[in-house]
Structures are given as structure tokens and as C-alpha cells.
Design goal:
two-stranded antiparallel sheet; 5 strands; mainly alpha
């Protein structure tokens, strides 16, 4: 195990933060979440690196487990309406599946490692949701997450500038992982007459950083659209993030931009119509003025079906479908590779689950996601009702508006992420999806508690009215 210089610096920052700030692990995880290509520890024997997500997420899970084991099991923890009830059911199914694999075909190190990474993701979601228990924690977490997105975007601009203007790019600072999954940070688009450098920033590949930036972009748009002043630099933040997503030249990122801006026009037409029109016209003018830029956009969109990436994704879905027909109910086990070929690895979310854990496991995962989204949706509605209650003070109203906006923003961000995972690759080994899910559930719990507090006075007033009627 090798401690990297960047890893040492991050650990020093972490120790100082933990000493000085309550819930520092939660905020450190939020800020360093996109650093998927940054190794705190490299493990050469396994060609694996422990990233900030693994370290901070693992510590957060450990602390959560200590608190959970020291408290009594209540009906709340056995509630089938909680997404984490279905997480436990999925974990039990995975354990039984692994035991069956060990007895029938044997289990290799790859299967064990990938299964452990998947379960870490579920547990990180649970630990995050458990830690978000006040509006103040939720507020700080969202702000830190947005600042992490801004740093990632600005480092991406720095990377793009270095590569295009001939400066030496210090990749070893944040792209120091020896993991095979982090080997695509220096991708380029090779055309006949020019070379296009693709932005990956602190992530492992352009698609990875684009997916992360899509999440912070969606949250920022909702916060601004709802009039919540928590986004760094306001609308400028949206322009910077959108620009860096475009610089990744990732087809997944460009699709994500289209989806985000479409959702924006549905919910916040008046607030953002001018900005979207301005960005669209600027993009069209650039395409008309630069044939080179038009070729780049065409190569990652219209001509995508002619690329090797498209072939790999289609092969992935085809192998996944064939694997499902061979073991439809319980799958082949997580971390399964057909024929041991990397080219045959199943990547997209739907067929990844169906081929690995079958219809039964996929159904449990869908229930996990569904109940989390339903909790968020119900919380948003209840807070909206609570905000209409008379007599709310300015501070209470501001808290309620923030909780409603933050829950809605994270929920939309998660849904966009799920769609992109379904059409591209499910990044279960990174922390973005798991962080957003845990944050959404934690926010929905705090929002529901806020709404319940402001529903109580009206219920009490109703009861008093009934008492007056009975006395009369």
C-alpha cells in the first residue's frame, strides 16, 4: 500500500477539518466526491486505489454502524416504506447468491472486490441519510457539494488550457490512481487534421466528470430558480459548469445538458429562458464560425453510431440480455464477466443488474430507488403545504423554502443520473449516485420533520375548536 503525496495532503486537511468542524467527514465526502482518479492509497498488488470516496465514505459508514449498533431496533428501522429496508433485502440476496457461487463455480477476487464496492455504495447512502438530521447540516452539505463542483470545473478549464496552449499539465496531482478504471483521464478525439483534448479534470474519464457536473448543474438551477441564494456566484456558476460539460466532448454529458435544460424550461421557464436562449445562440454561432468545432460535435453525437464506443455499449447490452435468458431469476452474480472478456463486460444499469442479480435482485433495487424518490416527492408536497400556513416567521419560511428546493433539486439530479446510467454505464464504483440518493433521503426526512412541526399548530387549533363545540 502506497500513500500518495496528494493523498497525504488530503488526509492532513481531513484531520484538521475533523478536529475543527462537526460532521466534517460528511462535508469532506461531498467536496472530494468527484476525485475518482485521485488516489489516497495505491495498492499495486491489486491494481486498485483507495480514493477519497472510499476513505471518507468508509469512515462515515463505520461511524454510522457504531451508532446503529448502540441503539435499539425500532419499528422505523423495520419499515417497508423505507428504501433501506429494501437495501437490507438486496444485501441478503447478494450474500445468498455469493454463497451459492462459492459452492458451485467458485468466487474469484474480482467478484469479491466488485461486490464489496457495490455494497459500500448502498451503505454510504444509508450513512449519509442518517447523518443529515437538521436543516443546518443539509444546508452546509449542499453548499459544499456545489463548491466541489466549481473546483472540479475550474480544474477542468485549467487542464483544457494546458493541453491546448502547450503547457505541461500536472496530471500526477489529481490523476495519480493506478486503478484500471482511472486510466482514461487523458483521452483525445483524433481527427484527420487535428487532435482534440478531452477534459476529465479530477475524474477518471470525460464521461465521469460530465456526469458529476450534470448533477451539480441540476441542483444549482433548481436553487436559483426557487430563489435560494446558496449557489456560488449565482448564474455565472451555471455558465461555467455547462461550458466545462461541453469541453468534455462526452456524448453522455451533452445528452445530460439537453435533459437538464429541457427540465429547466418545464419548471423555470421565466427564470432561465433568456440564459438558455443565449447559450444556445452562442453555441450555434460557434458551430457556424468553426468547421472544426462542428466536426467535433458531429463526431460525438450524430456519428456516435460509427464509433467503437457505440459498438461496445451495444455489445454490452446484448451480452447482458443473453446472460439474463440463461439465469433470469437470480442472475450470474455481481462482478460476472462472460467468457472473462473485458470487451464483454455489461455496463448499463438495467442489464448490469438483470445479468448479475436477475429479475429478483433488479426488482429489489427498483424498490430501493422507488421508495427513496417517493419519500422525497411526499416531503416536497408537505413542505409546500406547510409554507402556506399563516404565522410563519421569516427564518422558518426561509428554512422551509430551502428544504423544498434542495430536496427537489437532488431528486431531479438523481433521476437524470439514473436515465444516463440506463443508456450508458452504471458508475456504481464511484460515489455520485450513492451520495445523491443518501442526500435525497436525508433531506426528505428533515423536510418532512419541518412540515410536521408546522402542521401541528393547525391540528392543535382544530382540536381546540372541537373542544369548544363539545362544550357548547
Amino acid at each position: 500500500m502506497e500513500l500518495t503525496p496528494t493523498g497525504a495532503a488530503i488526509l492532513v486537511i481531513a484531520v484538521i477539518a475533523i478536529i475543527r468542524v462537526e460532521n466534517a467527514l460528511l462535508y469532506l465526502l461531498a467536496f472530494f466526491l468527484p476525485f475518482a482518479s485521485t488516489a489516497i492509497f495505491n495498492i499495486p498488488a491489486m491494481t486498485f486505489s483507495a480514493t477519497p470516496y472510499h476513505i471518507f465514505g468508509g469512515l462515515l459508514v463505520g461511524l454510522g454502524m457504531l451508532r446503529w449498533t448502540s441503539s435499539e431496533i425500532t419499528s422505523k428501522q423495520l419499515n417497508m416504506g423505507s428504501p433501506f429496508f429494501w437495501m437490507v433485502a438486496f444485501a441478503a440476496m447478494m450474500l445468498a447468491s455469493s454463497f451459492d457461487l462459492a459452492l458451485t463455480r467458485g468466487i474469484g477476487l474480482t467478484v469479491i472486490l466488485q461486490s464489496a464496492i457495490l455494497m459500500l455504495g448502498f451503505l454510504v447512502s444509508w450513512a449519509i441519510a442518517e447523518r443529515i438530521n437538521t436543516a443546518e447540516i443539509a444546508n452546509r452539505l449542499i453548499v459544499v457539494y456545489l463548491w466541489g463542483g466549481l473546483f472540479t470545473a475550474l480544474w477542468g478549464v485549467f487542464q483544457w488550457s494546458c493541453l491546448n496552449f502547450g503547457f505541461s499539465y500536472p496530471a500526477e496531482i489529481f490523476n495519480n490512481s493506478i486503478s484500471e478504471a482511472a486510466a482514461n483521464f487523458d483521452q483525445t478525439l483524433k481527427q484527420t487534421t487535428y487532435l482534440v483534448y478531452r477534459v476529465s479534470s479530477v475524474a477518471s474519464e470525460p464521461s465521469s466528470v460530465a456526469r458529476f457536473l450534470i448533477s451539480v448543474l441540476m441542483i444549482a438551477i433548481v436553487m436559483i430558480g426557487e430563489g435560494i441564494g446558496r449557489v456560488p456566484f449565482g448564474r455565472l456558476y451555471i455558465y461555467v459548469i455547462s461550458g466545462v460539460i461541453a469541453l468534455t466532448t462526452s456524448s453522455t454529458g451533452l445528452l445530460g445538458l439537453v435533459i437538464v435544460f429541457s427540465v429547466t424550461l418545464i419548471f423555470y421557464t421565466r427564470a432561465f429562458l433568456r440564459d438558455i436562449v443565449l447559450m444556445t445562440l452562442s453555441g450555434i454561432m460557434l458551430l457556424l464560425a468553426s468547421p472544426k468545432l462542428a466536426d467535433i460535435v458531429s463526431s460525438v453525437t450524430l456519428e456516435k453510431e460509427d464509433s467503437g464506443s457505440f459498438d461496445i455499449r451495444m455489445s454490452s447490452m446484448l451480452y447482458g440480455y443473453r446472460a439474463l435468458t440463461e439465469a433470469p431469476f437470480f442472475g450470474h452474480g455481481w462482478g460476472w464477466f462472460k467468457g472473462g472478456s473485458d470487451m464483454a463486460m455489461v455496463n448499463d444499469l438495467i442489464f448490469k443488474f438483470l445479468s448479475s442479480v436477475g429479475l429478483f435482485g433488479f426488482s429489489l433495487f427498483i424498490l430501493f430507488v422507488l421508495f427513496g424518490v417517493l419519500q422525497a416527492w411526499n416531503a416536497i408536497g408537505r413542505v409546500g403545504t406547510g409554507l402556506g400556513a399563516p404565522g410563519l416567521g421569516d427564518e422558518e419560511r426561509a428554512t422551509g423554502r430551502f428544504l423544498r428546493a434542495a430536496t427537489f433539486g437532488v431528486m431531479l439530479s438523481l433521476l437524470v443520473c439514473l436515465f444516463l446510467d440506463a443508456v450508458a454505464s452504471f458508475f456504481y464504483y464511484a460515489g455520485n449516485f450513492w451520495f445523491m440518493f443518501g442526500t435525497m433521503v436525508g433531506l426528505s426526512r428533515v423536510a418532512t420533520a419541518w412540515a410536521a412541526q408546522h402542521e401541528f399548530p393547525r391540528m392543535r387549533g382544530t382540536a381546540a375548536g372541537w373542544r369548544r363545540v363539545e362544550a357548547g
